[in-house]
Amino acid sequence: MKKFEYLSHTSEEKFAAYGKTMEEAFCNAALALENIIVNTENVKSVIKKKVCIETKHLKGLLFDFLQELLILFDSEHIVIHKIADMHIQQKGSDYVLECIVYGDNAKTYQLLSGVKSVTYNEMEIIQENQAWKITVVVDV
Amino acid sequence: MAQEIVINKISDNEWEIPKSGKMNVPVRIFASEKLLEQIKKDDSLKQGMNVASLPNIQKFSYMMPDAHQGYGMSVGGVAAFPVEKGIISPGMTGFDINCGIRLLATPVSKTDVEPKIKELLEELFKNVPSGVGSDSDIRLKREELDAVLKKGCRWALENGYATEEDLDVTESSGSLEMADPNAVSNNAKDRGKNQLGTLGAGNHFLEIQYVDEIYDKKAAEIMGITEKEQICVMIHCGSRGLGHQVCSDYLRKFEDAFPEIANALPDRDLIYAPANTNLAKEYFGAMCAAANFAWTNRQLIAHGVRKAFKTTFNISPKHIEQVYDVAHNIIKKESYKIDGKMKELYIHRKGATRAFGPENPEIPKKYQKIGQPILIPGSMGTASFVLVGTATAAEKSFASTAHGAGRVMSRHEANKQYTGEGTKKELEQKNIFVKAASWKGISEEAPGAYKDIDEVVKVSHNAGIGNLVVRLKPMGVVKG
After folding, report:
1. Of A41, A124, B118, B292, which sits with the fewest C-beta atoms within 10 Å of its C-beta?
2. pLDDT at B341 over 90
3. Helix, strand or coil for residue B458?
4. A26 near A19, Cβ under 8 Å?
């Protein structure tokens, strides 16, 4: 199964990410986002961070999770290449995401492009044929 | 989808999608036949119709000649809602709050700059941090950053980066009083703390241009543009990570606070808050703070430009005069006559430039007779334009016009069709030199990825919502 692919959009960057589980699809969406900024294959695991997100609905969870990676990039110059121990749970009516992200100081790598923000435009989180597909448009 | 939409011709430059379904007002499109065909190709018109369905929208959902598909609202969209009993929507300013243009006029000419263009670009690149992940030389402590958010360009003035004259020719003097630094999250402040005075990446640029054509001699002279081949410098950027975070913070806050509104929307990026709620007021305070950050950002970049001209040409900074600075992603409180009564409105401009006409008290004294300068950049390698606002614009488009060329091709597609090196070479053959932080930055902004800017400004001029004054052509570009 492909991890992710980039799709056509007039002004922004759009991608689809796949996974056998929703967790895997979330991890691959994060990789799709990071690969707009840097070639993640070159990035080493030097920095490790725990990420915790709690929201009232699933699309909000994806939005906030990806947005968190943009915050890490701009505020701490961290680029991510691996996401591990991803757990997504429903607590009452809320959604909780926990994971560990691994990456390095962005300054060590050749950066490709910037991402301004995650958007809800054409966002989808769907399960089909026992696999998950996530679609996201980010403002670049 | 687009071909099913009914579009009525109003004039050669104006079109209308009549009210249907959930629309509260018609959609009004400023475009030539050619541009309308391009606008029809993506989902922009559908997005214009979605905006027309928002509660209490006044007169029309407007689309400018450079409209293209955005998220929620199209880019090149204008919508007005009453401050009393209206709404306010973060997604309808664009994520880059107060993305805008500043234009500087210099006393040197094309022939002075030509032999030193590469040297000048290197010097600009040194003085203005560019590209993704580039940091500012200015490290702001939290209190200092709060002062920037509160005071905008007044902070720059107090710290020696600006002159009184600069502030005078900046929209709102580069300082919105309603700014509330406390409404800006720590995440947003963290994203912006090292970015003041940086150009960023994407479509943002710093361009050395020469005057190629003067359409309105009198207006141009008042702006300090006196002859052909005079060199000007155009700066295009916004509020960097800080503004982007403010927009997404409030989009999420509004969505959680008003789930019934969010669930009823055709597109969640259109989320809004009723204007009389505390959250709406908090957002407006945060947006004004981000706008102040953006104006200060462009002010610091202008400071860097002046330093580069001092080093390269030994020109005193005071001789590099600012023509104007205007936002094209912003919400402003403005008053207009509707059904015979003056109403205070939140004017949402997303990829649209304010176009105040003559005698508007909000524009500088020196421009009272001619109207506010409108700065419209072309794509990399093509012409840019200076226009002036008109009284007609106040009637026809809530004093708004286009903001640029508008994309016709995705960045992804542009990267497939053009290479950075190829684009650079092609531009060099036209005597346009590019200094970029990355090759990708060049290829995705290739001129072929954009609409025809000449056509865009012609529509603005012919529709009377912004009249042509000067055409500028590029000779050097600094890109992120």
Report:
1. A41
2. yes
3. helix
4. yes
Q: CA-CA distance, B460 to B455, in Å (whole number)?
A: 9
Residue B2, pLDDT above cutoff 50? no
What 3-state class would DSSP assign to A102?
strand
Size of interface A-B (CB pairs under 8 A): 124
Here the tokens at position B193 are 């703390």
Closest residue by Cα to residue B63 from B36, B28, B88, B87: B28
User: How does B274-298 read in b/e, with b if 16+ C-beta sit within 10 Å?
Assistant: bbeeebbbbbbbbbbbbbbbbbbbb
State which H helix or E strand residue B156 sits in: helix B153-158
CA dihedral for B70, B77, B478, B139, sign (positive or negative): negative
CA distance B226 to A74: 42
Among B267, B331, B365, CA closest to B77: B331
Average pLDDT of the segment spanning B445-455: 85
Choose the catalytic residue: B328, B403, B412, B461: B403
Our CA-based measurement puts residue A13 at a distance from the nearest CA of chain B, in whole angstroms, of 7
B96-111: pLDDT as tens digits = 999 999 999 999 999 9
Residues in chain A within 8 Å Cβ distance of B247: 117
> Chain A within 8 Å of B42 (Cβ-Cβ)?
yes
Per-residue pLDDT reduced to its tens digit, B230-252: 999 999 999 999 999 999 999 99
Q: How far is B259 from chain A (nearest CA, A)?
A: 10
Q: What is the DSSP letter of A38?
A: B
Instruction: Enter the pTM of the model.
Output: 0.95
Predicted confidence at residue B52, as pLDDT, reads 98
Question: Which value, to the nearest 10 degrees, does the dihedral of the CA atoms of residues B35, B36, B40, B44 take?
Answer: 90
Residues 6+ apart with CB under 8 A from A63: A55, A118, A120, A123, B248, B252
Instruction: Select from B91, B245, B267 the Cβ nearest to the Cβ of A71.
Output: B245
Give the pLDDT score at B232: 98
Residue with tokens 């997100």: A53
Catalytic site includes residue B328: no
Q: From chain A, pick out residues whose CB is under 8 angstroms from the CB of B413.
A: 8
Is B73 in contact with B290 (CB distance < 8 Å)?
Answer: no
Contacts of A8 in chain B (CB under 8 A): 410, 412-413
Q: What is the DSSP letter of B202?
A: T
